[in-house]
Amino acid sequence: MLSATRIAVRSLLRSPGFTATAVSTIAVAIGVNAAIFSILDAVVLSPLPYRAPTELVAVWELMESDPVRPVRASAGAFVAWRQETKALSKIAAFGGIRLTLTGYGEPVALDGSRVDDAYFDLLGIPPRLGRSFRRDDTIRGAAPVVLLSEGAWAGRFGSDPGIVGRKILLDGVPREVIGVMPTAFLPTGASATGTMDFRSNSSIWIPAELGDPAPRNSRSHVLGVIGRLSFGSDADTAQREIAALEGRLRRDGGEKTVGARLRPLDDEAAGDVRPALLLLWGAVLFVLLVACVNVTNLHFARSESRRREMAIRAALGGSRAALVRPLLVESLAMGLAGGALGIVLAGWALPLLLRLTPAGVPRLADVRLSATTIAFSLLLSVAAAALFGLGPALHMTRRGIEDDLKEATRAGSGSRRTRRALGILVVAEIAVASLLVVGAGLLTRSFRRLTDVDLGFRADRLLIVPVSLPKTYDRWEKVAAFHDALLENLRRERGATSVALAYNHPLEAQWSENPEILGRALPAPGASERTYWFRSVSDGYFSTIGVPLREGRDFDSKDDGRHPGVAIVNEAFARAEFPGTSPIGKRLRSSNSFWGPGLPEEFEIVGVAADVRFLGPSRKAEPAYYLPARQFPISDMKLLVRTSGDPLALLGAVRAAVRRIDPAQPVGEPMTIAALSDAAVAQPRFAMRLMVGFGAAALGLAALGIYGLLSFVVTLRTREIGVRMALGARASQVVRMMLAEVAPLAAAGAAFGVAAALAGGPLLRGILFGISPADPVAIIAAPAALAVVALAAAILPARRASRVDPMVSLRSE
């Protein structure tokens, strides 16, 4: 083995150009693979940082109105599950909150979660200081307590070890700090769209009042629920058991649920980024495959210059195994050198890649060049070495001694078998490149379709600032008065062209209802109920976000709690409930019981607004209805300010306006609707950019392969070309002859690649928007791009062949 190593090292040192080219090619491919794998490993492959994470599941309810889309659990359903489910050993509920901390510098809004007593124990996360919640903390009337995050403890309280036992003021309520929790990636809330939110930066946790004697409310669906499977149980068993409980709740008069859905918690954490990351990883593996083919081409081309060496070694008694061994050691040395250099390149490229990665990708803080990534990259390097080294090694040692010695003494004769092998490899290389180019074309076309979608509102110069009023605003009149004063203050600000308030901004949907349409027969027993998005908005909302009214009127200052209730519906609502007729004048009833009596309960439809895609460009506009904020006041609102200049330049005026009304009231982190619109397409943009880059890399490597093949062919056919030139062949004829070597290979490779893309198209169906996996533009673009690349790569060696001096060529024979 030492002898083989010495031979391999000497051979590589004698060919520095070949060695450098091969090592650098593998290094780039391994580096890109390591960078993408680092993200995939942290986000998808690594287990969640909890105790026995594979036992954890998320639990959702399914509504009769839409049995496909999961919804958050109701308190009544959760209590029933906790008390009666045997397939889950523990079950915990949680929901997002925002509370205002006062008394420690400037008032600040802290984001966190309301959780029950089983939450941290179920996840297996002990407190950093103090204790976690107990069951008696969650019973109504219990002393108010709070848990701080390690970040909030350090940032707001200077890591004071005496914080445990101290009371702090949150939303005007003194709460005793009972513990400090370590920084961790935790589920913090569940959205109305059936996705679970995870964060590493929650600031506080307070107990959810779900312990006995909590009311069994089965109508308000606001809770995220996670559970741990019992020993010997599985998700299917737990789902059947909970579905049976849902059926009983329905018979007992609960809301019309039809079952439950359990999903592994790691699926919830990865969210919808898993398919995109797996696609990208598959793409970079194909790039590595193209790189390996290129290095194999280099080996085959080099094999012609080593046939005499191999023949002499065989003539001196070397066995085939003895001949192959140093060749494989050469390949292994190049593979490991390329892998090591690739890991260095990945360490340099990973921060750049992370800056391109959408902020919504979970667990990005955990992405690093880990030992797992390094080990995987080195293993991949060894596999690549075997892939690009074994074929040429066997090829160089398979022929007879006499034939090799005879051919090795004939200058420029060459091996037809080598040319055939190179041709096959170039076809494979072009096929893989075609596959990647088709994928890049599909994602690019899909992204353009996505960004061309009309969201239904104007996204320019619109500032969004969350304003969450504390519990001291305990009457609807107080909430309405604050909102009126805030809007009045800001409407006088220079630079604010329009101002409004809304429960959700235009790209957010967190509240759904099934309003009763008055004057219509009630649904028959067992009939499906429709659920629609609900939004409470101030007057001026539609003009502020740029949504036109198709019919009727807008809300105005008279639509308050002392006047009859009014509503505006969108076009999708009108089509669903009043097909073929105008909804103006129709009436509906919506629940507003959380404020008690005094506000309208019935609402006359006075307008129809254009549709807005609340859920982003990839989702169609869904039915929604709007109520005036004065008639349905909500303490947690978004302030929307249309500006004449930079939206963020008006943030100081917004803060000043809030302080003039209530000095203890903070404002949340500002956003712009342009940034939110951009974030809505960040993930497909990320996938598109990387796929285009991988496709370009594959095309570049394919071009190098074509160039190398033709250069080798020119060398082999020097004598033939000289004879042709001596017999009167023109330079253009020689160029055409050389290009004819490439044309059928490029055509075959493109055909195989396009066929593979069509066969694998269904795998992309869930990622594409607005186009088919067999999109003709993308399918045609791949062969066109390859034709251009093949021509560009072939033209230089073809022109070199046309300049062969016949006399020099013939004299060499």
Task: Describe the model.
48% of the residues lie in helices and 18% in strands. The longest helix has 43 residues, at 273-315. Helix 9 (320-356) runs antiparallel to helix 10 and helix 20 (731-760) packs antiparallel against helix 21. It is an alpha+beta fold and 813 residues long. The protein is built from 22 helices and 26 strands.
Name its key features.
six-stranded mixed barrel; 48% helix; 813 residues; 22 helices; 26 strands; alpha+beta; single chain
Residue stretches low in confidence (pLDDT < 50, at least 5 long) are 408-414
> How many E-type strands?
26
Q: What share of residues is helical?
A: 40-55%
Strand content: 15-25%
Count of DSSP-assigned helices = 22
Assembly annotation: single chain
> For the report, how would you describe the main beta sheet?
8 strands, mixed
Envelope shape: elongated
* Cα distance spanning the termini: 40 Å
Structural class category: alpha+beta
What value does the Rg take, in angstroms? Answer: 34 Å
Mean pLDDT: 83
Show the helix and strand layout.
Elements (H helix, E strand, L loop, with lengths): L1 H13 L1 H30 L10 E8 L2 E6 L1 E2 H10 L3 E15 L5 E8 L3 H5 L5 E2 L14 E5 H8 L9 E4 L2 E9 L4 E5 L5 E4 L4 E4 L13 E9 L5 H17 L5 E8 H6 L2 H43 L4 H37 L14 H26 L4 H8 L7 H36 L10 E7 L7 H16 L4 E7 L9 E2 L2 E2 L14 E6 L3 H5 L3 E4 L12 E6 H7 L9 E3 L12 E8 L14 E5 L7 E8 L7 H11 L9 E2 H8 L1 H35 L1 H9 L4 H30 L15 H27 L3 H6 L2
Parallel strand pairs: 5-12, 7-9, 19-24, 21-23
Antiparallel strand pairs: 1-2, 1-13, 1-14, 3-13, 4-5, 4-8, 4-13, 6-9, 7-12, 8-9, 10-11, 15-25, 15-26, 16-25, 17-19, 18-22, 20-23, 21-24, 22-23
Helix pairs in contact: 1-9, 2-8, 2-9, 2-10, 3-6, 8-10, 8-11, 8-12, 8-18, 9-10, 12-18, 12-20, 12-21, 13-16, 18-20, 18-21, 20-21
